[in-house]
UniProtKB/TrEMBL annotation:
Residues 418-517 form the Peptidase S74 domain. Pfam families: Prophage_tail (PF06605). Residues 521-546 are annotated as: Disordered. It comes from Bacillus thuringiensis. This is Endopeptidase. Residues 524-546 have a biased composition (Basic residues).
Length: 546
């Protein structure tokens, strides 16, 4: 028959068991399941039929003929015995589960081997597994150790005791030379050797206060110092007070007032990734989701990453952070906050980047700061660019987003720095500026940046609508500098100043001509002549003689 075997004590740290203390990583759970299944065959012998065999034999060491021979082999409870009797076709191998002993003759009459007695095989299985499985309750460990000790002591018949004035020997044979299993008790201590009287004694209690043993099982073990290469157990608790450290499997918890104040461990997150975690201010459950500081790392993914943050809640995907710093093995890092990030420095703050500074609002790019291939410093905006170019004597340029053409500026006012403090070599203009102004060749033109708009309007024009010309886009007026010229633009303040000076020259010359025709009566300072309102003279009529 096929039946289902459950191993409820083996839990994988996934799904509903993800945060349980006794849960282990998935691969470790698979390994334990395979080992548990293997133990059912190698230890519990579930593949072997239940049967018992009663064997009567003569132990040669108890005969007169072989009494002086060494006792090279002994049989005890739970030992595996092979019985071969070729004449009867017997070839069996099983454990000793009972025996009949004659205390007068001091010999075994028969032994029973097999696996039929449930009580014995159950106890035997527990003894075999005591090093592999540790119960959660210390009392169960102690009970199992007591049961094992009781079984060993009650089944230890057939030994030989020899008394000396200074020591006592309990041996598996009469002769000290042939004995293998030996207990010795003397003034310096009590010890057991499995290799003869001369030792070594692997289990011992000595007069200097030392205990030598492979395993020590106790309900309570007290001491000032525990030293060792490895300490194995289910749980280690440093104090019985409300303030202590608890170590359980892969988890370390620091308690204060019986509350977890810090947690160190690892578990599988919702994505199935191993996540080593350090939590300050809570445990690896909901208590760590309200203002705890969390340091974490994703260790079993192709690209390692991690971070530090302060928690604000918990959902199906894990802990939520109100503010965090995230960094990746690829070289990326991200500082994130639900509300505000403040960077404060008493002296200076430096930002260093090889490519560009990029600024986003939500997920929308709004600006960048960087350098062009020619070494220009650019502030890039969605539809314009502000450039500081060394080719333009340090002038700030406003250009299109790609930097191909210049872009316009709209402002309520422009002020040019014109204070005497900033100037030198100030002198009057001695040449005629009017001639310069009159030589200006003012043109009308369209900007190349407006041409795509014209093409778009023409493409969208419906049949029958008027033809779209350059009148549909803005017309500009000004000087046009030839392509071969070194200058890219003109100074508006300089042009306006020359235009003003030229106008002043024109007015002065005009006034001089009017003065020649008819003197102008001065009123006040000549500089305020523009405030004198001229009287319109009636037209002159020349009387002709007839």
């Amino acid at each position: 028959k096929i039946r289902v075997v459950e191993f409820k004590d083996i839990k994988a740290a996934v799904g509903e068991h993800a945060n349980k203390e006794d849960a282990v990583p998935l691969e470790e759970a698979y390994r334990r399941l395979r080992q548990a299944a293997k133990d059912m065959f190698t230890i519990q012998k579930i593949d072997q039929p239940k049967a018992t065999y009663k064997v009567e034999f003569q132990e040669l060491s108890q005969t007169e003929e072989y009494k002086d021979y060494k006792h090279l082999q002994s049989v005890y409870m739970a030992d595996t015995v092979t019985v071969i009797h070729e004449e009867n076709g017997v070839d069996i191998k099983a454990k000793v589960i009972a025996y009949k002993y004659d205390p007068i003759k001091k010999e075994y009459l028969d032994i029973t081997i097999g696996n039929f007695k449930e009580s014995f095989t159950d106890v035997s299985r527990k003894v075999d597994l005591v090093q592999e499985e540790v119960s959660n309750m210390p009392s169960s460990i102690l009970d199992a150790a007591k049961a094992n000790a009781t079984s060993l002591i009650n089944s230890g018949f057939g030994g030989h005791v020899r008394f000396y004035p200074d020591r006592v020997l309990i041996m598996d044979t009469k002769d000290e030379k042939s004995a293998k299993k030996v207990w010795q008790w003397n003034l310096n201590g009590l010890g057991y050797s499995s290799t003869g009287v001369n030792g070594p004694y692997g289990t011992a209690i000595t007069s200097d206060g030392r205990i030598v043993a492979d395993f020590i099982t106790a309900g309570t073990l007290s001491g000032n110092l525990v030293q060792g290469g490895e300490i194995t157990g289910s749980t280690l608790k440093t104090s019985n007070s409300a303030n202590f450290v608890n170590i359980s499997k892969q988890f370390i918890r620091l308690y204060e007032s019986s509350k977890v104040r810090a947690f160190i461990g690892y578990y599988k997150n919702s994505r199935g990734e191993i996540q080593p975690t350090f939590i300050l201010g809570g445990d690896s459950d909901s208590t760590g989701a309200n203002g705890a500081i969390m340091v974490y790392q994703f260790s079993d993914v192709s690209v390692k990453s991690g971070g530090i943050g302060i928690t604000k809640g918990l959902d199906g995907n894990g802990y939520l952070n109100a503010a965090s710093l995230y960094f990746s093995q690829t070289g990326n890092a991200m500082l994130d906050a639900d509300k505000m990030i403040v960077l404060d420095a008493q002296s200076e703050m430096r930002f260093k980047v090889k490519d560009q500074f990029r600024f986003y609002r939500n997920d929308n790019w709004i600006a960048s700061i960087g350098t062009s291939s020619g070494g220009d410093t650019d502030i890039m905006l969605p539809s314009a660019m502000i450039r500081n170019s060394s080719w333009e004597n340090g002038y700030i340029q406003v250009k299109t987003a790609l930097g191909t053409y210049y872009q316009g500026i709209i402002a309520s006012d422009f002020k040019v720095s014109s204070k005497e403090t900033y100037k030198t070599n100030i002198r009057p203009i001695t040449r005629s500026v009017l001639e310069t102004v009159m030589a200006w060749d003012i043109k009308q033109y369209n900007l190349k940046t407006d041409i795509p708009k014209l093409y778009e309007m023409r493409m969208n024009r419906k049949e029958g609508e008027p033809v779209i010309t350059t009148d549909a886009i803005p017309t500009h007026y000004g000087l046009v500098i030839p392509k071969e010229a070194e200058e890219n633009g003109v100074g508006l303040y300089g042009m306006l100043s020359q235009l003003t000076k030229g106008f002043q020259e024109y007015v002065t010359k005009t006034d001089a001509r009017i003065e020649e025709l008819e003197p102008i009566k001065p009123r006040g300072n000549i500089k305020h002549r523009n405030k004198v309102k001229r009287q319109r003279r009636p037209p002159r009529h020349v009387k002709r003689n007839s």
